[in-house]
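Q: Given only this backbone (129 positions), what sequence would you predict?
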């Protein structure tokens, strides 16, 4: 591929954006308070554009006009909460529907059912003895 000024603009724009966003931006550093560990989760959106043109010239010199730019949005969306060996996702944003809320509650419901069945099984074992 021929190296053109537009290619250089695009490469520079992308390189600067790569420097600003990496995996630690999306899944943040764990924070521990007591026996609870919180890991922040963010949504990253970015876009860029660039363009250019060769300008007509009466001399033999090549003239070029161009530019490029980009933008990044980082939005916190949730925390992964690890407490007493259990992991759950705590969303930050409001739920758009009751179905979203119900889906978000499934892991907590499974944990509670598991605890209930475990306690019931232990109770039966003790009664049998």
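A: Predicted residues:
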């Amino acid at each position: 591929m021929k190296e053109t000024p537009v290619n250089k603009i695009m490469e520079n724009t992308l390189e600067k954006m790569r420097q600003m966003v990496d995996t630690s931006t999306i899944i943040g550093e764990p924070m521990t308070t007591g026996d609870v560990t919180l890991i922040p989760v963010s949504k990253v959106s970015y876009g860029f554009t660039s363009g250019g043109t060769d300008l007509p010239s009466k001399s033999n010199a090549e003239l070029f006009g161009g530019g490029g730019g980009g933008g990044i949005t980082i939005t916190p969306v949730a925390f992964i909460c690890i407490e007493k060996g259990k992991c759950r996702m705590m969303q930050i944003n409001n739920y758009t529907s009751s179905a979203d809320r119900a889906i978000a509650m499934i892991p907590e419901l499974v944990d509670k059912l598991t605890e209930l069945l475990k306690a019931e099984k232990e109770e039966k074992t003790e009664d049998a003895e």
